[in-house]
Specification:
The structure is a homodimer. Chain A has about 375 residues and is an alpha/beta fold. The first copy, chain A, has 16 helices and ten strands. The radius of gyration of chain A is 21 Å and the shape is globular. At the A-B interface, α7, α8, α10 and α12 of A face α7, α8, α10 and α12 of B. Chains A, B: InterPro entries: ACMSD (IPR032465), Amidohydro-rel (IPR006680), Metal_Hydrolase (IPR032466).
C-alpha cells in the first residue's frame, strides 16, 4: 500500500524555546533561577541549567543564537518545514520546558509553566489550526494545577501536560482525583512526555546512554498501570492519556500482565482494590495511547491492542527525529497495513484526541509562494 | 495442533523451604537473624521476616506446619505432582530465599546462600535428573560470589541465581566482569527471578498490588538493556541470562527501542560506549530469555524475537501458578503454533539452557505404583 496520500499528523513535535523566554518574563526576584538551557550528559540524559548556572561565555553564545531560534519558532518557517516533510499538522511540546518539573520551588514552577503556556499560545496555537500545543501543568500543588488547567483550557491550548512519573504523588493516589475530574470536563487529553518528572540518569557507565532511554520508556507502563488499576480510567471514561515518545509496544505486554495478576490476586482478600467492572486491558485499550517514530513491534501488536492506542510522531526538530525523511519512515513501517489502520495511527487518532479540524488536517500545508510550486 | 504429546519442562518451579532450614544450620551468633518466613502486604509485595521478627504464636504454627512442608519437598511427592500436571522436568527456585538479597550483612548473606544451596542439592538436584536447581550467589562481595559460583558448579547445581536488579553494582558495571567470565566458563545459565534484589513495594494505595507486579517485571528489560549495551553479552557469547516469571513480551519492545537509540546516539560523540559489532537486538535475541505462565503477546511476537528467548514455566506451587491445569493452559496458548516452535518454548530451550538429559526430559514421569496406572 502506498501511504503517501494518507494525511500525516505528527503527535510528537517540539519547539526550541527562546533561551531568554523565562528570564525576560519572570519577576526580578526569580530571574537568576530562570530555566536557561538543558545540558546533555554522556549517559544520554539531560539536565536543566538555570540562568545562575550558566557562564558568561554561554550567555554570549546563547544571545548570538537567539535570532535563529526565534526564526525556527515562527509559524511560516514551521509550516515550510511541515510541507517539506509531508506533515499536515502537529502536536507541540516544549524542550527546555520538559525539565521544569525538576524544580523544587512551587511559585517558580507555576510561573515557569504560565510563561511557557502564554508564549506557546501566542506563538503557534492562536495562529494556526494545524498546531495543538500542550499546556504545562504546575503539579507542585493541586489548587495550582487546577487553576492552570482551567486557564489553558479557556485560552484554547490543545492538551494538559503532566510529568511522566507522578509528582508529588504517584498517579494512583486520590490526590489526583480532582484533576482527572476537571480535565475530563475540559475535554483535553493528558500528555506525558518521555524523560519528564524523574531523574533521566538511571544508570552511569558502559552502555548507560542507550539503557537510560529504555529505562525512561519503562516509566510509561508503570504510570499507565497506576491509572488503570486505581480505577481512575474507569471512573473517568472521557480521560485520555497519551504517553509521548515512549513507543507503544509495551502496551500489549502491560495488558497481559495486568490482566493475569488482576485475576490471580482476586483470591487474596484486600489485594485487588478497587475491583474494576472490566479487566485492566479494557481501560488501557480504550484510554491509553503511546507515540513513536519507529515501533515495528507496536504495529505488529495492533491485532491485540487495536489501532486506537497508537499515534505516530516525528519528534521534529530533535536529533533522533525523522525529519526530513518522515514519509519514507512512514512508508517503511506502514506499507503492509490496511489503509484504514495506517490512517488511524498516522493521523486519525491524533485528530480525534487533540481536536483538530478534520478538514484542515486532511489537506497538505499550502505553498504560499506559487513560484516554487511544482507543476503537476 | 494437539500439544499433549510435547514434552513439557517447567522453567519456573519453586520449593517452599523448611522454615527451620536456616535457623538449624546457621551458627548460634546468626540464628536470630535467620530467614524464617515471608510476609505478604496488601500491595502484592512480599517482605522477609527474620527469626527475631516472628512471634511465639507464628513459630508454633510454623512448627506444626513443618512436616507438611518437608513432605512437599520430598522427591516422590514432587514427581507425583509433576505426573499429575503433565510436566517432565523442572527448573527449581527458592521461595523464602528470593528475599535473602535484602539482607545487609555479607557474612550472614553468604551463609544463607550456602545453606540453601547445600539443602537443595541434597533434597532434589542430587537425587533427580528431572530437576535442575538454582544456586544462590552471594553478591555482597565479588570474591564471595566467585567462590560460591565455583562451589555450586562443582557440586552440580543447574544455574547461578542473581537478583533481578544488580546489587551492589548495576549490571553494566565492570564490577561484574569476573563473574560473567567465570559463569561462562562454568557453563551455567544465569537466572534472575521477579521480585528479587529490589523493594517490591514500588507503590502503595489503590491498585498498587497489581501495578507492583508490572513494576517488578519492568526491571527485567532494564537489567537486560544494561547487559546488552555494556557489551557484557558480546564479550561472553556463552553467557545466557534467563529472567524468570517476568514474561517475555517486553523483549521485542526492548529490541526496537535499544536498536533505534543505539543508532541515533552514534551521532553524539561519547554517548555510545562501547560500540558493539551488532545492534543490541542481536544479543538480546541470542542470549536473553524470559519465562512465563501466560504470555500471548510474547508468543505473538516470536516472528520478531524467534522462539529462543521464550520458556514456559508453571510457577508451581505458588498461587498464581498453573498447577494442576498446566496442560490446558499450554494447549490454549500454543495450539495455534507450529509444533517445532511450541516444543522449543515448552521444553527444548530449557533442556538446552539448563543441561537436562534429553532422553530423560522426553519421557513422562513414570508411575511408581502400577495399581493406579490408567489402562491404555
Amino acid at each position: 500500500m502506498d501511504t503517501s496520500a494518507i494525511p500525516l499528523v505528527s503527535a510528537d513535535a517540539h519547539v526550541n524555546e527562546p533561551r531568554r523566554l523565562w528570564w525576560d518574563a519572570l519577576p526580578a526576584s526569580m530571574r537568576d533561577r530562570a530555566p536557561a538551557r538543558i545540558r546533555p550528559s554522556e549517559e544520554g540524559a539531560w539536565e536543566l541549567r538555570r540562568h545562575e548556572q550558566t557562564t558568561l561565555t554561554q550567555r554570549q553564545a546563547d544571545a548570538a543564537e537567539e535570532a535563529a531560534r526565534n526564526e525556527q519558532n515562527d509559524l511560516a518557517h514551521r509550516l515550510a518545514v511541515m510541507r517539506e516533510d509531508g506533515i499536515n499538522a502537529e502536536c507541540v511540546f516544549p524542550t527546555i520546558g520538559l525539565y521544569v518539573w525538576e524544580m523544587d520551588d512551587a511559585a517558580l514552577g507555576e510561573a515557569c509553566c504560565q510563561i511557557y503556556n502564554d508564549w506557546i499560545f501566542d506563538t503557534l496555537e492562536s495562529k494556526s489550526p494545524r498546531h495543538r500545543c500542550a499546556g504545562m501543568i504546575p503539579t507542585w500543588d493541586m489548587a495550582m494545577a487546577l487553576r492552570e488547567l482551567r486557564r489553558i483550557a479557556d485560552l484554547g491550548l490543545g492538551s494538559a501536560m503532566l510529568p511522566l512519573r507522578g509528582v508529588p504523588e504517584e498517579y494512583n493516589s486520590p490526590h489526583w482525583e480532582p484533576f482527572w475530574e476537571a480535565v475530563e470536563e475540559c475535554g483535553l487529553p493528558v500528555v506525558l512526555h518521555q524523560g519528564s518528572g524523574h531523574d533521566m540518569l538511571f544508570y552511569r557507565g558502559p552502555g548507560a546512554a542507550v539503557a537510560n532511554l529504555l529505562a525512561t520508556q519503562s516509566m510509561a507502563p508503570r504510570s499507565a498501570a497506576l491509572l488503570t488499576t486505581s480505577g481512575a480510567l474507569e471512573r473517568h471514561p472521557g480521560l485520555h492519556v497519551v504517553f509521548v515518545e515512549t513507543n507503544a509496544a509495551w502496551l500489549s505486554w502491560a495488558m497481559d500482565t495486568l490482566d493475569s495478576y488482576y485475576d490471580a490476586f482476586l483470591a487474596n482478600p484486600g489485594w485487588v482494590r478497587p475491583e474494576l467492572a472490566e479487566k485492566p486491558s479494557h481501560y488501557l485499550r480504550r484510554q491509553v495511547h503511546g507515540t513513536f517514530q519507529w515501533d515495528p513491534t507496536g504495529i505488529h501488536n495492533i491485532d491485540r491492542t487495536g489501532t486506537g492506542p497508537l499515534l505516530w510522531g516525528s519528534d521534529y526538530p530533535h536529533s533522533e527525529g525523522t525529519y526530513p525523511h518522515s514519509r519514507a519512515v512512514v512508508q517503511e513501517q506502514f506499507g503492509h497495513l490496511a489503509e484504514a489502520d495506517a490512517a488511524a495511527i498516522l493521523g486519525g487518532n491524533a485528530t480525534r484526541l487533540f481536536g483538530f479540524d478534520p478538514a484542515v488536517v486532511g489537506t497538505p500545508v499550502p505553498d504560499p509562494d506559487p513560484t516554487t510550486r511544482r507543476t503537476a
